[in-house]
């Protein structure tokens, strides 16, 4: 089974592209969804122990937790040490299940793929991209987003140009959903064809 890493900076259309891969029949594992799940269960006790008062009714309060870790590198490292291994565990379970079901390929949707060295766990990397102007418009249209917040997020992410350069395939999302759908199908065909040839 081919493991495809899917990544892209904020506002590039990664979630929509992940849905298009799912629509094409591939199982998709979202790192963000896994974190949400962990915050509602498995990770909550350890997070409460590390950051007392950040859990309400057994569920991590993301707002309260953010107040504790944002801008504090040591606190963020403590949080990552709790969450990352649990996300990897969920990822491994997902890949085993996908392989057992006979999937030809599976998608690991990881926002910070390059930033966390995640490309080493993938056979192929697909980067979702759009021009900076389109990205900016999409992100600033989100509720609660400001220019300062957007710039702070960008500063933590590998630049788009570098992601594109390191990608095996790029899906460009500024030309509408139908165009993106065609690109996803073409990329998938190339990946599966190459795999059969090797």
UniProtKB/TrEMBL annotation:
Pathway: Cofactor biosynthesis; coenzyme A biosynthesis; CoA from (R)-pantothenate: step 5/5. PROSITE patterns: DPCK (PS51219). It comes from the Bacteria. GO terms for molecular function: dephospho-CoA kinase activity. It is an enzyme of class 2 (transferase). Its main location: cytoplasm. It catalyses: 3'-dephospho-CoA + ATP = ADP + CoA + H(+). Its EC number is 2.7.1.24. It is found in: Cytoplasm. Keywords: ATP-binding, Coenzyme A biosynthesis, Cytoplasm, Kinase, Nucleotide-binding, Transferase. CDD domains: DPCK (cd02022). ATP binds at residues 11-16. Catalyzes the phosphorylation of the 3'-hydroxyl group of dephosphocoenzyme A to form coenzyme A. Belongs to the CoaE family. NCBIfam families: dephospho-CoA kinase. This is Dephospho-CoA kinase. It comes from Jiella pelagia. The gene is coaE.
């Amino acid at each position: 089974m081919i493991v495809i890493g899917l990544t892209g900076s904020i506002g590039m259309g990664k979630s929509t592209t992940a849905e298009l891969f799912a629509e094409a029949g591939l199982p998709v594992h979202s790192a963000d969804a896994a974190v949400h799940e962990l915050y509602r269960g498995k990770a909550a006790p350890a997070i409460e122990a590390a950051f007392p008062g950040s859990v309400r009714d057994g569920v991590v309060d993301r707002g309260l937790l953010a107040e504790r870790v944002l801008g504090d590198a040591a606190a963020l490292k403590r949080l990552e040490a709790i969450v990352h291994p649990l996300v990897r565990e969920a990822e491994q379970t997902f890949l085993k299940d996908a392989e057992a079901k006979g999937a030809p390929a599976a998608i690991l949707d990881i926002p910070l793929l390059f930033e966390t060295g995640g490309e080493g766990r993938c056979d192929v990397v697909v980067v979702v991209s759009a021009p900076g102007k389109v990205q900016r418009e999409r992100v600033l249209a989100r509720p609660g987003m400001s220019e300062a917040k957007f710039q702070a997020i960008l500063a933590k992410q590998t630049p788009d140009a570098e992601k594109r350069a390191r990608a095996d395939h790029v899906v460009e999302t500024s030309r509408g959903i139908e165009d993106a759908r065609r690109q996803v199908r073409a990329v998938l065909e190339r990946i599966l064809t190459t795999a059969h040839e090797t």
